Amino acid sequence: RMPLAARLALRRLSRRKATTLPLLAALVVSLAVLSMSIQTGRQLLSDWRSTLPENAPNYFVINLFDQDLAPFNDWLTQHNSDSQPLYPVVRARLTAINGEPVRDAVTKEQDRGDRALNRDLSLTEADSLPDSNELLEGRWVERSGEVTVESELAESLGLKLGDQLTFTGSSTPIEAEIVGLRDVDWESFAPNFYFMFSAGTLDAQSRTWITSFYLAPEESTELGSLVQQFPQISLLDVNAILATLEDIVAQASRAAFFVGLMLMLAALLVLAAALLATADQMRKDNRLLVVIGARQSLLRRTAALQALFLIGGAALLANLIHFAALFPLGQKLFDGELPLSLWLLLPWGVTALLVLAARLAPPLRPASRGGKV
What we know:
- By secondary structure, the chain is of the alpha+beta class.
- 50% of the residues lie in helices and 18% in strands.
- It has eleven helices and twelve strands.
- The chain has a six-stranded mixed barrel.
- The longest helix has 40 residues, at 238-277.
- The two termini are 32 Å apart.
């Protein structure tokens, strides 16, 4: 029931499977790589940056001491800087769970849990739940000797509410009961911790302080005075880290784009070679159609529809591959949401251009003999 031109186009493709299928595969791969390379380079990083709150902290300060806190807060006030709370940091290692050595208590170690067992952890205490954290189970700490744990680490270590933890630090052992599990937004550029204790639990330990703050770009020249006033601190410039990250992503994006472009050009060369290889057969087909009364408009429509079915099918399969690649990416980086964009239409743009070229190109005319067709 399809129009004649569509039936002729499909019949031409189906009769030459040895040419059509490899050509289809080349177009699918090239279109998928081209659209994915452009989107991953141009959209994903910008989408991630757009999720950051306005005036997100752009500097971290670590290794502040107790006597530095008052003058440091004065410096922030003088420079109109928005800062996160100051958190004490105690270095300690998790050594026991419910009185058992930690290696015996943990039976299923995942990557994050394994890292937590093989290094010193940064412990802290706070009076209230940070804005970048969300309490999933239990409650916030209220009394000395209580702790909340980041939920994914708790899962990897097999921890649950009511478990007793023992940490070995620089002074006396630290013992606490788990009263809550937290979800942590690690992309908030605020200080975040796996273990957060109730206020006063870490008083007996040696500690330093950490915080992050936002400083307007025009005030960045004042950072020299901060380092001069507190020479022992470590100042981490998030702007420089982001600039380096953007440069790396841009280079990788350009490399992937050129790979996709070269694949696209290779697919077009294969398409041109296939057309040249089948030119004689297409002339015979056109000669037969002309003999039985076909007009030039029918030949043009048939050529355009043949290109549409072939390249449009490749664009559809390229979109499916693109979706398949975006699904795990969305699960990992975008909280389960697919980072859709208009770049998904790029294969169809290429399809439209090639179909238009096929529609406007003169059809292969029957070969002449003795000046007669």
